[in-house]
Amino acid sequence: MARATIKGSSDQMKSYRRTLMSGAIIAAGIVAGSLLISSMSAMAKKPSQPASATYTIDQCVTTFDKSEVTPTSKGFQFWFVTQEVAPNLNVKMSHVDGVTANHAPHQHPEEEIFYLLEGHAEFTLTDQKVRISAPATLYCPARPMHGLANVGPGPLRYLVIKNG
């Protein structure tokens, strides 16, 4: 696996860690809400795991490890909760370099919540656009065209919480 390096001064790294920690606390509330949405949606689906499924604490706790990020053409991503652990819910952190986007607006059948940890973004939903700064939450219903672009000179970091 290719490894990305996060560069910055000691103060920048401390600020980055504080941003991640405060974002993680807020994200816990968002994840709880997302779990509620996911569980309500899943009532019509089969359960994500059989009632007899057993999890270990190692499967249920993930801490950020910069040596395990997946580089992208515009930055990197890090998976906190994968579909292998929770088939109906996943959480990743995306880092997008200044004034760019990971991809063009797109659509898919799953709902998403973006939680902005750091930076300035332009959020597109169908034919509407808004500029917003972290900390903020953005909800994407299933199926409409949507996108998120970094409109600031520094990095845009956000969590993607997705059902399905």
Can you give a write-up of this model?
With 164 residues, the chain is an alpha+beta fold. The protein has one domain (10-163): Jelly Rolls, CATH 2.60.120.10. It is 23% helix and 35% strand. The strands form two sheets. It has a six-stranded antiparallel sheet, with helices on one face. A four-stranded antiparallel sheet has the order 4-9-6-7, with no helix packed on it. β6 and β7 (128-133) form a beta hairpin. The radius of gyration is 16 Å and the shape is globular.
Kindly state the percentage of residues in helix.
10-25%
Give the tally of β-strands: 10
Q: Any idea what the CATH superfamily is called?
A: Jelly Rolls
- What's the CATH class label? Mainly Beta
Major sheet: order of its strands?
1-2-3-10-5-8
Q: What structural class do the secondary elements suggest?
A: alpha+beta
Strand proportion, as a percent range, falls in: 25-35%
Per the CATH scheme, the topology name is Jelly Rolls
Q: State the end-to-end distance.
A: 25 Å
Main beta sheet strand tally, sense and closure: 6 strands, antiparallel
CATH architecture: Sandwich
- What are the segments in which pLDDT stays under 50 over at least 5 consecutive residues? 1-5
Tally of individual domains = 1
For this structure, the quaternary state is: single chain
Which word captures the global form? globular
Kindly state the mean pLDDT as a whole number? 82
